[in-house]
Input
Amino acid sequence: MRRGQGSARYGDSGQAFPIYITAVAGLLFLGLALFAVGQAGATRNGAQTAADAAALAAAQDHRDALRDELLTAIGAGEAWEDILDGNGIGSTQACAEAQWFASENDADVTDCEIFGSVPPSFRVNVRTRYTVGDSIVPGTESQHAAADATAEIEPRCLRKPPDPADPPVPEESSPAPSPRPSDTDGDDGDEGEDDKPEEDPKKPPVEFVCDGEEWSIDPERPGVLPDAADLFSVHLAD
Output
């Protein structure tokens, strides 16, 4: 009887061994599958990080160019209101800036475009230089990740409206010109003060408000000037 009981116990353990092997193999496969998913997710996240950085870089480069364009127009006495709204020439190197930042994240820009005018936006597509890598999923060793991002440039300033409490400035009438001496007076060498060239009128200050902060810029003697970030905000589109 004892010998029969020992044989039964040995037979039960022998039957459990294949089940144990199967369970271990299943857990190992599940672990490898989760690892493959993690690899793919990390590659995708890397692509999205590169796309976000590239889009923001393009928009910021364009924003900096708009700021320089605005200050140049103010100094030259040219129209500047549209530039303050973000409607200007901006940068021609924005997409090159996007490629540089994508390269820093081990990716390449596959498409870069500006769309809209007020406010302008940049849409950038990137592709990773690295692949997902070897895994239990066939073909992942040659799969690159792609992602896109859009960055918007938003004006932060408005032209300062005139203060209704300020009285209108009356226009001064020009004095009547003094008579010029005739050629028979014998004073050919003395032309008088009326022949002096007139001075250009002083350019009025340019005033605008950026998120509650008032700016007044003298075109002829600019002092403290706003930064690009004071004039325009740059953010990723939702």
Observations:
- The chain has four helices and seven strands.
- The first strand starts at residue 107 and ends at 115.
- The first helix runs from residue 2 to 76.
- Residues 17-159 form one domain.
